[in-house]
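Page 42, continued from yesterday. The earlier attempt failed because a stray header line got pasted into the input along with the sequence. Redoing it now with the clean sequence only.
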Amino acid sequence: MLSHLKRLSIVMLAGICAAPLPVLADAKSDYEMLFGKEAKQVSATKSTADDAVFAKKLLDAAKARTDAPKTQLFLYEKVVEFGRRDATGAPHALEAIELLIRSQPSQKAKWQEAKLNIAEKQFQNSRGAVSSPKSPSTAPSPKSPTSKFLTLDLGKGAKMKLARIPAGSFMMGSPKTEKGRKSHEGPQHKVTISPGAPGFYMGTTEVTQEQYEAVMGKNPSLFKAPKNPVEQVSWNDAVEFCKKVSASTRRTVRLPTEAEWEYACRAGSKTQFCFGDDAKQFGDYAWYHANSRLKTHPVAQKKPNAWGLYDMHGNVREHCLDWWEKGYYAKAHATDPQGPASGRYRVVRGGAYGYPESGCRSATRDADAPDYRINNVGFRVVVWPH
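This time it went through. Structure tokens are written below.
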């Protein structure tokens, strides 16, 4: 049947290119006249390869229907319908979604959600071949492609919750007029995170001591309490934790890049803090020098930002993936910057229990040696759904 579809596709598309197709009053009738019988054949087959071939044919036909906008949009929607049935047709569906968003900007939210569904299904399918049903930690997560949260089973009764962070753009760094600003926070520049992708997942909290101990078998923290963030962990320690969790969950778990961290911290805000510029509200969102009694506290006790992330402004500072370079912003990539290729120190972001408000802003950045451990630095992780 696949070879038959390919031959039929070539013949029909040749006809489309040779002469304009008739424009019918109803886009559905146009579709049924051209593809109805074949669409039913593909729907009835168990071969997902046929879905991919048919989705590609529909996409090519849709692009050719510039003479019939309604039919063109209808065909794009059909590409999504067939392309999302299996990962093999997903690339055509994702391309159709971009064209639908361009044609229907008012429906952007709807199609962005469809894009998330398809990309997450691609991820789940790619993991399905290597997952083990005997291990609960390899079970597909999240429970559905539209989940706003993802839960990782770390073993020994410990779990980790991550929130979905949407793709988008933001102004990274701080303006020259921001109180407490340091020169290495500039120049402020536009950065785009995960274009063409559904975004990523980030831990709703810093990694706790019980989570770290479940994975690493030890707890190096000074302020010991199971729900407090783990500290006195180096960048190297954090990376090793990520490697172990990646292996046990069959996910790609890693530290966030500096850009991902600030983007997630801001959660759409353009102010010095995720909640605005009013420092009087700071104690509602963070453990810092004025309320912490100079020690860490259980995670998620303060208000989260708009994307459901806790303690981004306080409790402990957080390791990031990037090498540190003071003047990197002046030459950073505009899309998914990964930091310098090499360096001596690694980036640390966020505030901590002993810092004033000015040292806990969204743009605050610092650095430590990869093997350095101190009791005000921990980390949180990210997972990409592709």
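Notes: The first helix runs from residue 2 to 18.
Reminder to self: strip header lines before submitting.
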